[in-house]
Write a structure and sequence with these properties.
This protein has 5 helices and 2 strands. The protein is mainly α. The protein has one domain (2-125): Arc Repressor Mutant, subunit A. Strands 1-2 form a two-stranded antiparallel sheet. A hairpin with a 7-residue loop joins strand 1 and strand 2 (82-87). Helix 2 (18-29) crosses helix 5 and helix 3 (34-43) packs across helix 4. The protein is elongated. Residues 5-16 have low confidence and may be disordered.
Length: 126
């Protein structure tokens, strides 16, 4: 599967594409379209003023090429048609794998922070 290679490449916080993960989290709850995804990302605490819609749409296209999401056109009664995205089973597996690795990374980062705090406390006592 294509996503396995991608998952290895983008798992960690330091080098990971958190935007992809945020998109997949949102789509795991409900199907959505680009601008709605941006609003939902903002609700997760991300400052969306720096998030250009083109970036979100590019990520959505890449996620679709990798089989992590699928899309179809939805024609509403008002306004133009819009592309609606849904997470796939591979997308759910990607999230699960990312979670497992991110949780491990979090523990490493927590340990590093604790070590830095010890250094800073020692420095303050000198």
């Amino acid at each position: 599967m294509k996503w396995r290679h991608r998952c290895k490449k983008w798992l960690t916080f330091g080098s990971g594409n958190l935007l992809d993960v945020l998109i997949l989290i949102i789509l795991s709850k409900k199907q959505s379209y680009g601008y709605s995804l941006i609003e939902e990302i903002g609700k997760l605490g991300i400052n969306i003023s720096f998030l250009h819609p083109a970036i979100v749409y590019r990520n959505l296209r890449n996620l679709e090429l990798e089989g992590l999401v699928i899309s179809n056109w939805e024609i509403g009664t008002s306004g133009p048609a819009r592309r609606v995205y849904r997470i796939t089973e591979d997308g759910k597996k990607y999230l699960e794998n990312w979670y497992i690795h991110a949780k491990n990374d979090f523990m490493i980062i927590k340990n590093i922070i604790e070590e830095i705090e010890k250094i800073l406390e020692k420095k303050g006592g000198d």
